[in-house]
């Protein structure tokens, strides 16, 4: 059942182009029309939404953080993201015009389920994004959008994360179409690019070979830091989480702009720092800022491991290791930039002799609060 791979995780990483394609299947028409019938929200309800609140845990929470950037930009609806275990204890402001999106691969995370119940008591509309058919969270929600990643056996979320991103983009683009024709051209262009993501994911998988060697060379590091800006920041958080859970290593992620507010003091000779460089398209300022961040940490001795768009020559002089990913629109970049992070953590963990399918102390679905 592992399809010739030693671990499910390795197989699940390779299955990502298919998982992404299956999640898009039947939802994106040739003319760019989106069909998300299972959402079960009437057009009038979609137009009435005044606020979106995303709740999730762990990796699913990182998908939510990325969704916020996309939804606010495309739909102009204020969007909050919160860790499910914190959500209901802070007296959040919810009403009929609030759409709560609960993201859960398993559909069984107790923290997320309790947050869903709370949101419904407060009369919010709850949409679940979930990978397991008929699981508890979608059953208790008003609507559902299933990710079609297929079963994920490895404890660490990989293919389900990519498909959660796709599902979040679909919801954002669908809302934008339903509410706001002003951005029509941009929205249509993004839909076209989204439809092309399976090929881009395939392309990344073809080029991550060097990441394996790199990961092995870092098995003795005490700490790895991750930096990103904009949607690259949640990708950095995801990279750090993967390294903690699989390689049992200390890893921390920062918004690159926060460096100078404290974390830069951590930089010392030889410290590995993974940096996600934003796409050049449309966000030149962000791109230039991160290039200076890379220069700053390198001047202080960091070993820079840079994930950047292919052909991005501006970062090359400051990258001790350069990992190239295809050029895609900024908001979609996490779909490709996450993959080197997964491979990096997986290989590093394997180099340490860890079982990547069953990391210590962890369970695939966390059914206690
Ligand atoms: C990380 C991981 C966990 C889950 C979290 C939420 O690789 O697998 O952080 O993402 O426990 O699980 P779901 O999405 O099932 O609610």
TrEMBL record:
GO molecular function, one term: carbohydrate derivative binding
Residue ranges of every copy of the SIS domain listed in the record: 42-181, 214-359
Claim: Protein biosynthesis is one of the keywords in the record: no
Keywords: Aminotransferase, Cytoplasm, Glutamine amidotransferase, Repeat, Transferase
EC number: 2.6.1.16
Positions of the catalytic residues: 364 (for fru-6p isomerization activity)
Gene Ontology annotations of biological process type: carbohydrate metabolic process; fructose 6-phosphate metabolic process; protein N-linked glycosylation; UDP-N-acetylglucosamine metabolic process
Keyword Ubl conjugation assigned: no
Organism domain of life: Bacteria
Subcellular location as annotated: Cytoplasm
UniProt catalytic activity: D-fructose 6-phosphate + L-glutamine = D-glucosamine 6-phosphate + L-glutamate
Described purpose of this protein according to its UniProt entry: Catalyzes the first step in hexosamine metabolism, converting fructose-6P into glucosamine-6P using glutamine as a nitrogen source.
Protein name per UniProt: Glutamine--fructose-6-phosphate aminotransferase [isomerizing]
